[in-house]
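Whether sequence alone determines local backbone shape is best considered at the level of individual chains. Part of our work consisted of pairing the sequence of a single chain with a tokenised description of its backbone. This step matters because it turns folding into a mapping between discrete strings. For completeness, the protein is quoted in full, as a sequence line and a line of structure tokens:

_____
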Amino acid sequence: MPSTLLLALTTTTGPTRLPPSTLPSTLGPTAFPPPASHPHGASQPGNARTQEYQRTATIRNQVNLKKPTLKLQNVPGSADRMVICFTFDASAPCRVVIALNAAEETRKGCCLRSEASLPPALAYDKGLEQKFPRSDEVVPAALTLPQSRLQELLSLPAGGDRMPVVIRLEALTDEGRADGRDLHSLEPGSELPHWVQTQTTYARVLREEDGSLGLRVVKQKIWVKGEAYELQEIYGMEQNKGVAMGLPATATGDGLEEVDGNECVICLSASRDTAALPCRHMCMCHQCASALKTQTNKCPICRNEIESLLHIKINKGGASKPA
């Protein structure tokens, strides 16, 4: 069950470094600031500076929407209306909340502000590869979108505080279950308490090449113990552990070069277990990274400046532990 993410976390208001966690971990999306823009080229002698190591923190993630599966689909029997569809995993009972043309208030527990009342949340049991909506489920009318509504969402300006489509998967934390909490006590889109863990996916409506309307994920966040974190990928991690949750191994989502194979790009023999930050290329073994940091401050893949190194200890049995 993919119920854990290996994360180096960045809050939505600024970077936060956490001590190593004792939770078990598997591989998944990782939260970092976006890569800095630097001119390409080899570093000059004397310009190298010692890079500091960061340790990973692990978080038990109970819900995950698979970004490549998010799409719009025609409602059976209707030529004008469409419904949002996606596949997700849940290691605990959860519910799905969808908001349209909504803004998130980070300082108010990530509550969602929408022009209209949010549709009722839909409850799901735990399980892998779950479909939303279920094939046997009657989709609430509020979740079926006419073409006119989709055109309104398509015209929303990029970069504004409102997002056309917001999908939130909610589950109780272990503490919440122990305390007898109930997700049904929360109004959809309301301020999130500490006893709830969520993953929120933000998407835009766009026109596909064939003229049809589709959805494209802009970002994902998780809410854990009263803090919100944005998820990003580590490029090269999937080849070491199979395809991780999120983007496939063949795509990075932002145009950065992916790393093929699982060998260190320097010695070409040891397995890579160290990522350069902020570019997030996991391309070196720990030994080569230790030697490299005293000689150059450039990533071997993209040649961007390395600000720090993230060492991820990967066990052959399948679990990952903080370095």
Notes: Residues 23-59+234-323 form a domain with the Herpes Virus-1 fold (CATH 3.30.40.10). The helical segments are 147-154, 174-178, 237-241, 286-292.
